[in-house]
Amino acid sequence: MTMITFAQDDIRFTHRIVGVAIEDGRVLLHQAESDDFWALPGGRAELLEPAEATLRREMREELAIEVEVVRPLWLVENFFQHQGYRHHELGIYFLMRVPADWAYRAQTEPFLGDENGTRLICRWFPLEALAGIRVYPSFLVSGLRNLPPTLQHVVHVDP
C-alpha cells in the first residue's frame, strides 16, 4: 500500500496514527536512535486503511505485539520542524492496551523496537517524570496525565 505522506519543497504532510499505552502510572514512549526526543509509538496510515488497523499493524511491525485499541483520545493537527522539513501532521491518537503477558510490559530498562530498519529505543516513563524529558508533541506532557473523556481536537505548534 501507499503511505499517506508527501512533500512539497520544504514542507512534508503526514497522516500519523498513534498509540497511547499507559500501565501502572507509566506511558510507553520511543525514539529513533538518531533523535534527541521521545514520542508515542505509531506510524503513517496507508491509503484505504482504517486508523485502528493502522495502529494494530504498526504495533506488530515495531513491537511484534497485538494491541487492543480502546478508544480515540485526540485528533491532532501538529506543526513542527524536523530534519530540514516543516511538518504538517494530522494524527489520530488512540488509547491502547498491550498484552498482559508481553515480556516488556513491566520492563524498567529501555528495550529495542524496529521501524523499517530504523532501530527504536522504547521505554516506559512514569507519567510524573514527563516534564523532565523532551516529548513531542509537547502538549503530551500534561495531556498524558489528564486523558480526555471523549475525543478532543488539538491544534498544536512546536518550534
Summarize the model shown.
Helix content is 11%, strand content 47%.
Regarding CATH, which class? Alpha Beta
The stretches of 5 or more residues where confidence is low (pLDDT under 50) are: none
The structure class reads mainly beta
Q: From the alpha-carbon coordinates, what is the Rg to the nearest angstrom?
A: 15 Å
Q: Could you spell the SSE succession in H and E letters?
A: EEEEHEEEEHE
Helix content: 10-25%
Beta content:
over 45%
Task: Write down the domain tally.
Answer: 1
Specify the overall morphology: globular
CA distance, first residue to last residue:
32 Å
Enumerate how many helices there are, as a single number: 2
Strands, count: 9
Fourth-tier CATH superfamily name:
Nucleoside Triphosphate Pyrophosphohydrolase
The description of the largest β-sheet is: 9 strands, mixed
Mean pLDDT: 96
* CATH-defined topology: Nucleoside Triphosphate Pyrophosphohydrolase
Any guess at the CATH architecture? Alpha-Beta Complex
Key features of this structure:
mainly beta; Nucleoside Triphosphate Pyrophosphohydrolase; 9-stranded mixed sheet; 9 strands
Structure, explained:
By secondary structure, this protein is mainly β. The protein has a single domain (5-157), classed as Nucleoside Triphosphate Pyrophosphohydrolase (Alpha-Beta Complex), CATH 3.90.79.10. It is 11% helix and 47% strand. It has two helices and nine strands; from the N terminus they run E-E-E-E-H-E-E-E-E-H-E. Strands 1, 2, 3, 4, 5, 6, 7, 8 and 9 form a nine-stranded mixed beta sheet that branches.
